[in-house]
Input
Amino acid sequence: MRSRTEWPERVLRAIGVLALLGALVSTARPSRAPLRPTVDSLRVVDRALDARLVSAITRGTLSPSQLLLRVVPDDSARALLHAARDAALPLGWSVEQGITLPAVGIAAHGVPAPVAQTVVRASAGNASWLTLHDDVGWVDSVDAPRGDVCWSLSSPAGSWCVETAATRACTRTEVPARRSRVRVYGAPGWELQFTMRALEEAGVDVEADVSVAPRARVRVGARVPLDTSAYAALVALDSTAWSDAAMIARFVREGGGLIVLADAAKDAPRPFPVVTPLGPERPAVPGALRSAVVLDGLSLRPPRDEPEEAVVFERSARPGQPAVVMARRFGAGRVVQTGVRDLWLWRMTGGDDAPAAHRAWWERQLIRAMRSSGAPDDADRWYGGSAAPLADLHARLGPPSPLEPPVSADVARPSRPSPWWLVVSAAALVAEWWLRRRRGAR
Amino acid sequence: MFATAQYESGDWESAPSLPGNLIDSVARYTTIPVAPQGVNVALASEDALRYPLLFLTGHLPVRFTPAEGRVLQRYVERGGLLFIDDHNHDIDGAFHKTATEEIARWIAPLAPLPNNHALYSAFFDFPDGPPTTSHELNGWGDNLVHEQLLAVRRGDRISVLYSNKDYASEWNFHPDNKRFMGKDPTRFGVNIVVYALTH
Output
């Protein structure tokens, strides 16, 4: 039977337990404080962020802000906004009402020497007027109702930007090495003449040493030692090339290019195992010089077979579709073999665009024969997102995300327990313990 | 293949022995392969484009038809070389006046060709420019020795070469007769052929 002196202890124990329960209950009850920040300011954003916004982001003191975009911010602005988002700064973004940001994109690639051109393609969604700029300023403007434009520019490299009223997209092409000296081997004749002419018109420094009599030679251009640092490629029009066969083989092994025409291929010497023996001659198709299959208008001696490692660039439309242009590696270099004969006839008797097409064909073969540019590529210093800034904006910040309006009073969050409950509970339990010790109980 | 241009006006066939003589010289002095016979090709025909070196001569007035003019334009634009020689060797003759007018009308005005042009050293050396002809030295025609040839050039290359020196008369003989000559007068013709093939 319990003593009557124990009842104060029971009361204090009950108070302590009830106070502890009270603390737990208050913890479970939601808070009345708002969950998310309200928008303190609307900020209109231009290509570059204004100094106050930059300062607030970098110091981490940004008050809740909603950005209204009229244009796509530039690279550094997008990067800073991305950083702000990752730092959980209270930032939302949207496009100002009535404005549509066009999805402008740009791509460019350089065509190496001797052509040394840049092809720039741009797409601008529904924005019709596009202007093109390079490193030094405005280049062209064009009304592109379908939004897609392609420029062929004589400048070999540089940075390129297309711009609409609201977006500026930029990219760049590397500087291709300009090694444009070519040596042409051939007997005096129209093929030699018009090959040299096409290459010269393409901006190539042509060099030839043509034998016209036992003790008479015609020199075109300045002859320098045959080396890959001096020559981009060699053109063997006929068997006159093979008097230098050993030298040419060394040049190609070291990385130079060689273009071999049928009249040279048929007499190719041992140093050139990659020159494929020729099959029977296919006669020219009458009228084809002015058709879509131009080269079928010329007689063709295709390679007898197509080795597995060979790459066929062009084929004839004749039965069996024999290879017209084929290339193989030889050491570090490339040998481009073509069986087309009398190419000069294309230029003289072809359609209206024949001179330009003949020149372009020779340019293509030269590019195929040349090794790729060894120029340093500074692409690693270039930010790829610049080529499609709107896509980059979405990738960095996510879709447009307005900040929430002020949260209503009944939306609450969990809160910490009130300290008073704990104080009362602790005091009651300490008092209860003291009374028990006083009467000698444990 | 040496080709002579046929045109509707004038006497295009006035030097029938010249092609054979020039072919003989090219074969005699060089290793350039040549067809043994020349061809005559109508200037109004697209076939003219198959002969990137064309020879044109005559005594009479020259007026190209529209078809001839258009082919001539294409011929020059694509890289052909037209060699015209005035068979009259007259600065004020009918052929000279009309031929130069026609070239200016369809292609471009002719201009004097410097006597140090590559043409004069393409095979044989002619340091003083175009060689004189016996007709000039004998005072026939306009009694002038024409110091320079005329040309239309595209870039550095000759597209139209024009002569008042009457090479058509000077070279219009059978090749066998070269053995009676101290110096072969057709040597300059070899320069024209070598220049056309290599420059």
